[in-house]
Design goal:
About 20% of the residues are buried. With about 300 residues, this protein is mainly α. About 80% of the residues lie in helices and about 0% in strands.
Amino acid sequence: MQDYTLIMQVALSVLQFASVTFLVWALFRRPYKPEPPVNRRIALALGISRRNTVFDIPVLKPFLGLALMSARRWPLLRDRIRKDLEASGNTSGYSVEEYTALCLCSAFLLTTICMFLVGLIGTWFVILLTLVPILGFSIPVWALNEDARKRSALIGKQLPYTLDLIAIMMEAGATFTEAAKTLIRDDPTDDMNQELQLVLAEIEFGTPRRIALSNMAERIPLESLRGVVGAVNQAEQLGTPLSGILKNQAITLRNARTVAAEDAAAKASLRVLIPSMLILLAVILVVFSPLIMYWMNNRDLL
């Protein structure tokens, strides 16, 4: 028992030393360069305020200052948070540092709450100190990743229809920019149209169209979108009519979706087979169990 207590005390001391060392290192190491999202950079350049974050609440600013200072030196998961912020649309306008600060605050608050609920007793404290902060930091990261995944899926569903509409308008004499502006004006809340709006904003600031489209493909992690952007850029280099390329890409995406649906249906039928057999076996047992029990009870008489 004494050996066990000694081991727990040593483990607790090591964890305390490691946490303090990591905190000091995070606070005083060289800070990362701020990474505002693309929509926030465009909004700032146009003089449009699109911020809606907790960091803009005056009452919370003093309390979030330490977390933000720590987040500017935080080395972990920065790339993933940046990509998920861009893929999720980031309507509130969070930067990588600000969202990392929210993750740190979540870890601190969850740890504090669990300490009050569980109590600083024995092994519970060691488990709490190691697992709860990781869980608290991971919850906002997971929520952001889910938002990015859902929005990317919606954009993937809308992509063929957007390509068809742009191709039709270009065949009628409109340019790519005019067709995209028409789509954005008709439905500015659509996720695909919001990405097109960012593309047009980059083009208006002097970015070549192929680079603006490549930036969109980098923001949204979809293989279908990357294939479309690659085909459009290649058509621009070769001088191929863009409307025909967009139509072909839309047809290809629909065919790929049909094949994926057929594969999913085939897999679903196989997955349903085993539960169906079990249900059939259960029905047979329910129907014939009285006869089986009667035969077992009266087999000597037979």
